Amino acid sequence: xxxxELSMLELGKKLASGELSSVEAVRACLARxxxxxxxxxxxxxxxxxxxxxxxxxxxxxxxxxxxxxxLDGVPVGLKDLFLTEGLPTTAGSKILESFIAxxxxxxxxxxxxxxxPILGKLNMDEFAMGSSTENSAFFPTxxxxxxxxxxxxxxxxxxxxxxxxxxxGALGTDTxxxxxxPAALTxxxxxxxxxxxxxxxxxxxxxxxxxxVGPMTRDVPDCAALLQTIAVHDPCDSTSAPAKAPDYxxxxxxxxxxxxxxxxxxxxxxxxxxxxxRAAVEGATRALQKLGAELVPVSLPHTRFALATYYxxxxxxxxxNLARYDGVRYGLRSGEGKNLLAMYGHTRDEGFxxxxxxxxxxxxYALSAGYYDAYYLxxxxxxxxxxxxxxxxxxxxxxxxxPTSPTPAFRIGEKVSDPLAMYLNDVFTxxxxxxxxxxxxxPCGFTRANLPIGLQILGRPWDEARVLRIGRxxxxxxxxxxxxxxxxxx
Amino acid sequence: xxxxxxQPVIGLEVHAQLLTRSKIFCGCSTEFxxxxxxxxxxxxxxxxxxxxxxxEKVVEFAVRxxxxxxxxxxxxxxxxxxxxxxxDLPKGYQISQYDQxxxxxxxxxxxxxxxxxxxxILRIHLEEDAGKNVHDAGGGESxxxxxxxxxxxxxxxxxxxIRSSTEASEYLKALRDVLVYLGVNDGNLEEGSFRCDxxxxxxxxxxxxxxxxxELKNIxxxxxxxxxxxxEIERQVRRLEEGGKIAQETRLFDAVKGETRSMRSKxxxxxxxxxxxxxxxxxxxPPGYVERIERELPELPRAKLQRFVTSYSLPxxxxxILVGDRxxxxxxEKVEAVYGGPAKKLANWFTGELxxxxxxxxxxxxxLRFTPEQFAALLKSVxxxxxxxxxxxxxxxxxxxxGRAPMDIAREKGLIQVQDAGAVEAAVDAVLAANPDEVEKYxxxxxxxxxxxxxxxxxxxxxxxxxxxxxxxxxAKLGD
Amino acid sequence: xxxxxxxxxxVAGLARLSLSAEEETLMRTQLSAILDAVDELSRVDTSxxxxxxxxxxxxxxxxxxxxxxxxxxxxxxxxxxxxVGTSFAVPxxxx
Lengths: 490, 480, 95
Prior knowledge:
The complex is a heterotrimer. Chain A is 38% helix and 12% strand. Chain A has helices spanning 8-17, 22-40, 48-63, 106-114, 156-163, 180-186, 220-230, 265-268, 275-290, 306-321, 340-351, 354-367, 373-393, 419-423, 430-435, 464-476; strands at 43-46, 76-79, 118-122, 169-174, 189-192, 212-217, 260-264, 294-298, 399-403, 439-446, 452-459. By secondary structure, chain B is α+β, with helices and mostly antiparallel strands. Chain B folds into 3 domains: 3-292, no CATH class; 300-413, no CATH class; 421-477, Arc Repressor Mutant, subunit A (Orthogonal Bundle). Helix content of chain B is 39%, strand content 20%. Chain B is built from 15 helices and 17 strands. In chain B, the strands form 4 sheets. Chain B has a 9-stranded mixed beta sheet with strand order 3-7-8-11-1-12-13-14-15. In chain B, strands 6-5-16 form a 3-stranded antiparallel beta sheet, with no helix packed on it. In chain B, strand 7 and strand 8 form a beta hairpin. The N and C termini of chain B lie far apart (72 Å). Chain C is an alpha+beta fold. Chain C is 34% helix and 9% strand. Chain C has a two-stranded antiparallel sheet. The longest helix of chain C is centred in the N-terminal third of the chain and has 18 residues, at 21-38. Chain C is flat. Classes of the chains: A alpha/beta, B alpha+beta, C alpha+beta. Chains in contact: A-B, A-C, B-C. The A-B interface holds A 81, 83, 89, 91, 96, 99, 101-103, 105, 200-205, 208-209, 235-239, 316-317, 320, 322-324, 326, 328-330, 340, 344, 364, 367-369, 372, 376 and B 42, 45-54, 81, 83, 85, 87, 90-93, 142, 144, 146, 271, 273-275, 278-281.
């Protein structure tokens, strides 16, 4: 059996017993990268030396009886917006193409302490703005299930790396669906925790009140393990929750008997949902019903305003967060700058891609004098209503189910010139970010064209344990998550 | 029409750096004078991925100022981003407060020709300082030093209650004194730790409608405050008299030319696109926090001044000098408590000898070598006649330099006056016996020879006779 | 269209983006379409609603006033596009 066929926890066990070494595991990943990444193009940078050195250190710890934990020695990949000291961190952008991070972000520190060798940095939509990884300044990543299609985005590289078993697990970020949607499109598990559960210090910011870091893995137990590693309070992040995370394994296998699962009318009524997606997701909800859960129709009446709300708040915060990319202290500086103003303008015009410029413009406009009330402030008020919708629903149900993405993976190039069409990819995932809730996508089926379909599970704030438990209950009875893309199967 | 027909209306905005050890949102040192960018980290450099964490001391200092200036402390206040591009602003926004600042609606009393006047304070809020942009003389470049980026500031905004440049100057001095007294700021206008912008407008006397205000920046000494404001008032009056309008603009004070001129050809006012800072939750003041800070407030300059005048019967002039430095005032009270004599006498020593010596030596009160007890003893010895005033000044200078006891110094220098009545009498007898003609002259009405006789006695006593005793003994023996 | 070219230029100025003429035109079209789409928010009654200005809960985290080590100059200036000594160098502002 190829080491890369193992899950993170399965590998962890074999490392603990000495049956496999971390160096072997890393080498297996690197071999797969060599074989497949020429086509998939998930990695922006592979850190061979670094990963092997970290693997060797892990193996030494094991010999000394000092393993750091369940995941010590299990190789992972990181979306390229996690600052990793000494390595370039580009956020998928030309403006940071040669930026070498001078510090490790908190989550990176936690992974290092957990002993997971970092294979490299994974491709993404520039500054996390996008749903297809086509907005990467460098190249698009391809979906391992069909190389002509997108793996989704913005954490497309992370999803593709895990789906094609080039990495055992990965971290991504999710602002409007950027973990869950690519997870759905590539047939893996992806979780966005409650806002504030995981530190954002050392994560290149897109939209500060929406961004969250989360695990992307092959199955739910791996997801729980990776989440456990990073769900730690961080005094460097003032939005980090002070309360300690629970043990995500305590109730993981407890099943869904007696649980009430909500089916939001407005999600299932969406025109433009692919009929195969609808069928697979409805099938999944019925499967959970068979396992003992009660399906309850619920209404989230302000759902249809979520897209507009998100596309005012996120770009507004982004326009401010991206002001620091001005060519003064790091990153690209245009040669066209005879004076300061020209330097700023040309640096940012050359360094940012079109989608980023579009959102910076939109955000700047939404905050500008005379428009703040009608746009930004209004959107933050509607956001409150969206949150309230969920609070009301969670009075009668324990979790909410929906499709993750309205369509399976789409062809590269199909939507990239139509921003509005691209934005529609996130209709089901956005509201969760606006409300700050935890949300997870688990594989729940395939189209006739063998493209993965994801089921989204949304929970109450801080209720990741229940979300994981529901996902696990479904996963145990099915094998969607064990299917591998035809790419590299031989 | 002239300046006299117009009423100036002035509001002042003060930005004061807070004397915390570390910056407002990161742990870098706030110490002045380090090499460029030596006190920076990823946070205050505005690198990707960084987040702010509030320094608790900043809140404490700000609440202290807020209560000292009689403001309401808002239990919840909001951080906001003020967005603009400048090389010394690393994030491209400044974290400040906009809606819902920390403190509101206070006031500060100042002295004017018409008596005390309360200048209302509209608001006080917290924000981070920017770095420094220095124009490189040779290169055609600017050099950016971010050591100052992230140093905590409070911004104190007055209502437009100020009506003259003198009042403005008084307000700034009074405000500066309060901040220095509270230990939150070093009051240094020249070094930039205490900065002032003025909003100046004029309206016809008797009118209630304010004119168009102009913002004045770059006022970096107390001297210039009055000059800048006076110039601007005249400029506006002249313009209005010529039939022109006052443009809404920002003007810089040119200290060399003594005039204000328009800043940058920028047509538009900045659009700062303020919005609530998502990386910082609202600032919540815990219950009991404000009360605790209030209990720990020191006596403020104005209250101390009034107390010094009434309790110590000191003239306002003297009291002002003593109260101008909290440590000086404290020392005065310590010494007076031991001395117990007329406070004015002690005050003279403070405003005269002590301040002179401190200045000459560029010394700090904190490093004073002698004790309050010693100082009191010195004064008592003058009162008691053991030392003449001049001798005491000598002794004091030595005390200041060495911290030795005054009488030890006096003894060593042979400055102690002879008080012994017998010795004086004996000397007087001897002189009178040796100068019969002068005795005759004195007794026949030529009183001015007393001076000569006193001199002779002093000579015989080698200068150590207590002049008062000598005088009295001579007169008595001469039969006066 | 919701946006005029003048407005596009104004916003680009605020955002310090030197857009080419083609980009300006494209922005005008696309941003106008997006603004039209978000305009539906105006139909929502939010008269009695508070904005969600802060996503995190009821926390007011403070840190103690302790000095922590700063970056050594190599780190602070390690990615600087231009420097003079330990200062960042930038082109001058035209007054």
